From TrEMBL, chain A:
Record bears the keyword Iron: no
GO cellular component, one term: plasma membrane
InterPro entries in UniProt: AAA+_ATPase, ABC_carbohydrate_import_ATPase, ABC_transporter-like_ATP-bd, ABC_transporter-like_CS, P-loop_NTPase
Keywords for this protein: ATP-binding, Cell membrane, Membrane, Nucleotide-binding, Repeat, Sugar transport, Translocase, Transport
Keyword presence, Plastid: no
Record domain ABC transporter: where: 6-242, 258-505
Organism domain of life: Bacteria
Record protein name field: Sugar ABC transporter ATP-binding protein
UniProtKB/TrEMBL annotation, chain B:
GO molecular function, one term: transmembrane transporter activity
Alphabetical UniProt keywords: Cell inner membrane, Cell membrane, Membrane, Transmembrane, Transmembrane helix, Transport
InterPro entries membership: ABC_transp_permease
Transmembrane segments: 29-50, 71-91, 111-134, 197-215, 246-264, 276-294, 301-319, 325-345
Cellular location(s): Cell membrane
Gene Ontology cellular component list: plasma membrane
Top-rank lineage group of the source organism: Bacteria
Provenance organism: Mesorhizobium atlanticum
Protein name: ABC transporter permease
Cross-referenced Pfam families: BPD_transp_2
Amino acid sequence: MSAPLLSVTGAVKRFGGVQALRGVDFDLKAGEIHALLGENGAGKSTLMNLLSGVYTPDEGEIHIDGKSVTFNNPREAQAAGIATIFQELDLVPSLDVAANLFLGRELMRQGAVLDVPAMRREAKRRLEAIDLAIDPARLVADLSIGQRQVVAIVKALSYASRVLIMDEPTAALTVGEVERLFEIMRKLAASGVGIIYISHRLEEVPEIADRVTVMRDGRVAGITEPHAPQAELVRLLVGRPLDELYPERARSAGKPLLTLRDASFRLVRESAGWQPPTGVSLEVREGEIVGLAGIMGAGRTELLSALYGTGLAGRWQGEVAVDGKPVRLDSINAARKAGIAFVTDDRRGSGLMLRMAVGLNLVMSVIRRISPAGLMSPRRQAEAVARSFGQFDIRPKNPDIAVGALSGGNQQKVVLAKEILGNPRLLLLDEPTRGVDVGAKGEIYARLRALAAQGLGILVASSEMPELIGLCDRIVVLRQGRNVAEFNGGVDEHTVLAAANGREA
Amino acid sequence: MSDQKISVAANPAVPATAAPRHRVDPLAIVVRFQSLIGLVLVAIGGVIFSPRRHGEILFLNPDNIANIVRAVSETGIIAIGMTFVIITAGIDLSVGAVLGLSSVVTASMMISGGFGLIPTILAVLVMGIVFGVVQGTISSRFRLEPFIVTLAGLQAARGLALIVSGNQYINISYGDGPGLAPPVFAVLGERLFDNTVPVATIVFIIFAAIATLLLNTTRFGRYVYAVGGNDRAARISGVPVSMVRISVYAITGFASALAGIVHAGQFNFGSANDGMGYELTAIAAVVIGGTSLFGGAGSMVGTVAGTIMLGALANILQLNNITPATQLLATAAIIVLAAVLQSLVRRREGLGR
């Protein structure tokens, strides 16, 4: 048997006093898709950075085709055939696709003038090689996240072609785009490329991976085959059995909090790709967690943001009632007055002040309450912060550091804690666990359920079907802005998917 | 790599009454007080390199110190206003021109208009506020970059000032009667407390104290940080983002008008072309004071210290007969140093850039 394409033996990496890797062995075969799983801090990013030349290991070796190699910088790793696609794609949005593919290695005419036609032709050829019909003259800014992902892959492959490392490539993709990406990955693997696939989404693993390595605390916790039961993967990830990722459901719900009856949101100006709620009827009761399911573009996010007044300009028609009384929900102020709070799906973009301290972020939604007569009260602020830290296990336990330095899961806890401080009666959540590791997910679910038990109503939109099914009391399925079906929690995934896609189960 | 430092929590509901203190990055402390540290260093340098006469250190001469704090009071007042704007990630380029306009209006109201002291001062301050409100409203309503709007504001203020003054110096003469300004206005050019503390400096210090309280202890101050930190998140949290935006430009307008009044009182004339380049000096003082042009972070004390530091630096170089060219180069080096320090801290905190 020949040597693996790529192998790492006994890798150790320390940062100051922190040991990020404690002797890791890892290998990748040609033509293999190898999933690398681990919670935040497990060391998978460090391992990836060793392989892509960002760091050099303190101990241990990297071999390619059985020969020992050392990478002093990312360029040397690329020269050895290793390409890395980071989560934050290194594309320039204001340039077109071809210009991005050739960035830094432009084709020239007479050595001085950019040969744009040649670059576009070559770009088109490379894109078509993986069956992708994107016009190379389009601006990257005009592409969907999924299309950008593919452009980044094509770009990476033109630098290096033997090993492809992908860091959470599906985090921001729609279901359709994920399918498309997987097809491309399979095609690449079939041509002999070895792919290391890093993800938080356990449910994707059996679909795409040939082998799975799970890391924990800087070590390899286990290597398993992709069809291992999910419980087994979770046990490896968190180091103990986690039989109950989802908390038990409520026994009974209270009075109706939010009632929509044939409610539509009329936009002042139509906007392509923004699906307004159209004839929606649904109800969220006190103590109830209601899920919003639907394919991308079905109008889940739009429904939540129209209720909160953060979407496009427009107004509600039909019956919209809170506590049985009709309300006009046309602005953030109106929503907040009605006791509604909202957590966006984009915590970095619109949820947090990343450079500001955790404590300052936490009290944002209660500033009025902690500043009587316009003067900030340090005592009330400290009380509010302490309350949040008591409710959520935010790590590190320091309200003074910038929230941007926290992990995704901890940032998400801060966003949730912030809105909960405002004592809302109805909480609107959009993708509450996107980019959050399993441990933090479990905590967030438990906390949401506990809040519901105290009478909070929760309306949660998610593209993760297991999450909706596990967490929610009821699931409302949206299609083209309408509610087309409703199920109780615990329904099977295919039934919901069929309704979302407009098919018979 | 925040990834390595932060362990994952799987146990919910850990009781936490008081969050424990954590080690703080020493570099972050340096940056937090960078302009104060810089001020101390410049002062020490001033003592060491000061020329001496009969054994007396000229730098520490009370007259010299009074000169330093008087010379910085106008740009200092402007820098204080600018700090609010820059914390919201905005910029106001119109401040120097509004100072010129205000000095002209102050002089012409009292000399040609025959208005009394109080009506003149109130009118000029209101004019400054209105000027800022207009800029803030245009920028906020039409979603224009403050850079562009206030660049236009700069041109507009200079144009208005030239119209009002007819491109002439308007000299302020004091006395009772038409065409004369009330003598009490001249106090802005004098010193109080045994002829030690310049009145312009007192105005600067009082304004700085009020601004510090406004920024650090009020709801409005917190909103200013929030809008600069992330305006979308602020909006979702119910912060009146447009109102805050407009208000900070009203504050720079007010500050520029106040500086213009002080200017007219100190020099006894109004001139349409005065205050040129003050916007850049003020921005420099704010940045040296540790306020980030990216918004969301900054301190008023830093700005005040940064302003005085720049003044003290210019003074010590002047005392040693070092050319203005060298002064500019020294200022340039300090601005870069301040910015580099901030960038290092951001990177250490894992916030990139």
